[in-house]
Amino acid sequence: MDVTAPAQMHRLVSAQLLRALMQRTGTGADVTVRELEALTGVPRSTIGALLTGTQKSVPKSAAEQIAKAIGVDLLILWIPDERAAAHRANSAAAVAG
Protein backbone atom coordinates (compact mmCIF):
# COMPACT_ATOMS: atom_id res chain seq x y z
CA MET A 1 0.00 0.00 0.00
CA ASP A 2 1.37 3.41 -0.98
CA VAL A 3 1.08 5.66 2.07
CA THR A 4 2.07 8.71 -0.01
CA ALA A 5 -0.97 8.40 -2.28
CA PRO A 6 -3.67 11.00 -1.61
CA ALA A 7 -6.77 9.81 0.20
CA GLN A 8 -9.63 8.85 -2.09
CA MET A 9 -12.30 11.52 -1.68
CA HIS A 10 -16.07 11.06 -1.70
CA ARG A 11 -18.53 13.80 -2.66
CA LEU A 12 -21.78 14.21 -0.72
CA VAL A 13 -24.81 13.50 -2.91
CA SER A 14 -26.86 16.23 -1.21
CA ALA A 15 -26.74 18.22 2.02
CA GLN A 16 -30.53 17.87 2.23
CA LEU A 17 -30.22 14.08 1.99
CA LEU A 18 -27.64 14.02 4.79
CA ARG A 19 -29.91 16.19 6.95
CA ALA A 20 -32.94 13.96 6.23
CA LEU A 21 -31.00 10.78 7.01
CA MET A 22 -29.74 12.29 10.27
CA GLN A 23 -33.37 12.93 11.23
CA ARG A 24 -34.27 9.30 10.65
CA THR A 25 -31.34 6.92 10.73
CA GLY A 26 -31.44 3.23 9.88
CA THR A 27 -32.62 2.54 13.44
CA GLY A 28 -35.45 5.06 13.13
CA ALA A 29 -33.84 7.43 15.64
CA ASP A 30 -32.38 10.83 14.89
CA VAL A 31 -28.76 11.81 15.36
CA THR A 32 -27.40 15.28 16.09
CA VAL A 33 -24.20 16.74 14.69
CA ARG A 34 -22.56 16.29 18.11
CA GLU A 35 -23.69 12.64 18.31
CA LEU A 36 -22.52 11.98 14.74
CA GLU A 37 -19.12 13.38 15.67
CA ALA A 38 -18.95 11.05 18.68
CA LEU A 39 -19.99 8.04 16.60
CA THR A 40 -17.65 8.71 13.69
CA GLY A 41 -14.72 10.78 14.87
CA VAL A 42 -15.50 13.25 12.05
CA PRO A 43 -15.24 16.79 13.49
CA ARG A 44 -18.46 18.74 14.07
CA SER A 45 -17.04 21.52 11.91
CA THR A 46 -16.76 19.12 8.96
CA ILE A 47 -20.27 17.75 9.47
CA GLY A 48 -21.63 21.29 9.79
CA ALA A 49 -19.82 22.36 6.61
CA LEU A 50 -21.31 19.37 4.76
CA LEU A 51 -24.79 20.30 5.99
CA THR A 52 -24.42 23.92 4.85
CA GLY A 53 -22.82 23.00 1.53
CA THR A 54 -19.57 24.84 2.20
CA GLN A 55 -17.76 21.50 2.03
CA LYS A 56 -18.64 18.91 -0.60
CA SER A 57 -16.13 16.08 -0.13
CA VAL A 58 -14.45 14.08 2.61
CA PRO A 59 -11.92 11.25 2.62
CA LYS A 60 -13.41 7.84 1.93
CA SER A 61 -12.84 6.75 5.54
CA ALA A 62 -14.95 9.63 6.87
CA ALA A 63 -17.67 8.97 4.27
CA GLU A 64 -17.76 5.31 5.31
CA GLN A 65 -17.99 6.20 9.01
CA ILE A 66 -20.84 8.68 8.44
CA ALA A 67 -22.80 6.24 6.25
CA LYS A 68 -22.30 3.45 8.81
CA ALA A 69 -23.40 5.65 11.73
CA ILE A 70 -26.52 6.75 9.85
CA GLY A 71 -27.26 3.18 8.76
CA VAL A 72 -27.11 3.49 4.97
CA ASP A 73 -24.91 2.06 2.25
CA LEU A 74 -21.97 4.27 1.31
CA LEU A 75 -23.21 4.97 -2.22
CA ILE A 76 -26.63 6.16 -1.01
CA LEU A 77 -25.01 9.26 0.46
CA TRP A 78 -21.63 9.55 -1.29
CA ILE A 79 -20.16 9.47 -4.80
CA PRO A 80 -16.45 8.68 -5.28
CA ASP A 81 -14.96 11.98 -6.51
CA GLU A 82 -13.51 10.47 -9.68
CA ARG A 83 -16.99 9.27 -10.66
CA ALA A 84 -18.51 12.65 -9.76
CA ALA A 85 -15.93 14.43 -11.94
CA ALA A 86 -16.63 12.08 -14.86
CA HIS A 87 -20.37 12.66 -14.46
CA ARG A 88 -19.90 16.45 -14.45
CA ALA A 89 -17.72 16.26 -17.57
CA ASN A 90 -20.28 14.09 -19.39
CA SER A 91 -23.11 16.43 -18.39
CA ALA A 92 -21.17 19.49 -19.61
CA ALA A 93 -20.41 17.78 -22.92
CA ALA A 94 -24.08 16.88 -23.39
CA VAL A 95 -25.16 20.48 -22.76
CA ALA A 96 -22.49 21.86 -25.12
CA GLY A 97 -23.30 19.31 -27.83
Protein model, in words:
This protein has 97 residues and is mainly α. It has a single domain, classed as lambda repressor-like DNA-binding domains (434 Repressor (Amino-terminal Domain)), CATH 1.10.260.40. The protein has six helices and three strands. The chain has a three-stranded antiparallel β-sheet. The chain is globular, with a radius of gyration of 15 Å. The protein starts with 8 loop residues before the first strand and ends with a helix. The mean pLDDT is 87.
Summary keywords:
mainly alpha; 59% helix; three-stranded antiparallel β-sheet; 434 Repressor (Amino-terminal Domain); 6 helices; 97 residues
Number of strands: 3
- The strand order across the widest sheet is 2-1-3
The CATH homologous superfamily corresponds to lambda repressor-like DNA-binding domains
What's the CATH class label? Mainly Alpha
Number of helices: 6
Strand content: 5-15%
Q: Roughly what percent helix?
A: 55-70%
CATH fold group:
434 Repressor (Amino-terminal Domain)
Tell me the count of domains: 1
The helix-strand sequence is EHHHEHHEH
Shape field: globular
> Structural class from helices and strands?
mainly alpha
Contiguous uncertain segments of 5+ residues: none
Quote the distance from N terminus to C terminus.
Answer: 41 Å
Any idea what the CATH architecture is? Orthogonal Bundle
Overall pLDDT metric: 87
Largest sheet: 3 strands, antiparallel
Rg (C-alpha, Å): 15 Å
